[in-house]
Specification:
Length: 150
């Protein structure tokens, strides 16, 4: 059974999938940082110093009565809240990831189309006497001057 599992785990598809998952997780971390640390601060600044991660609606106050200055304070107090600011951050993260994956797939598809393009029609033929390349419509070889049959 161990030998069978080893064969399964070492197949190319499984190893490739594992590498893809690891790179995907790392990419997700980068995108989260991009959204939270680069994209959202300027957007929040344009909207009047709004920190999207702190946008929430309290449904029920916690042990300490509100108002709460931040989501962290509300959660520490045990308040029940709808965290729509975090949802906005996650939606933007998803859009960035989806666009990046789209661009990668688009590039791969272009490469596949370039590989699958049919070979162009030949424009030359070989002289039967000297074996040099000559135009298809030639009636005499430009290299050995032999007459060619049409």
């Amino acid at each position: 059974m161990f030998k069978e599992f080893k064969e399964f785990a070492m197949r190319g598809n499984v190893v490739d999938m594992a590498v893809g998952i690891i790179i995907g997780a790392a990419f997700g971390t980068i995108v989260s940082s991009l959204v939270n640390d680069v994209i959202m601060p300027p957007i929040g600044l344009l909207l009047g110093n709004v920190d999207f991660s702190n946008l929430f609606v309290v449904l029920r106050e916690g042990a300490t009565a509100g108002p709460y200055a931040s989501l962290d304070q509300a959660q520490k107090a045990g308040a029940v809240s709808i965290n729509y600011g975090m949802f906005i951050n996650h939606v933007i993260s998803f859009i960035i990831v989806a666009f990046a994956v789209f661009m990668i797939i688009r590039s791969i598809n272009r490469l596949k189309k370039a590989e699958a393009a049919p070979a162009p029609a030949p424009t030359t033929k070989e002289c039967p006497h000297c074996l040099m390349a000559i135009p298809l419509k030639a009636t005499r070889c430009g290299h050995c001057t032999s007459e060619l049959k049409p």
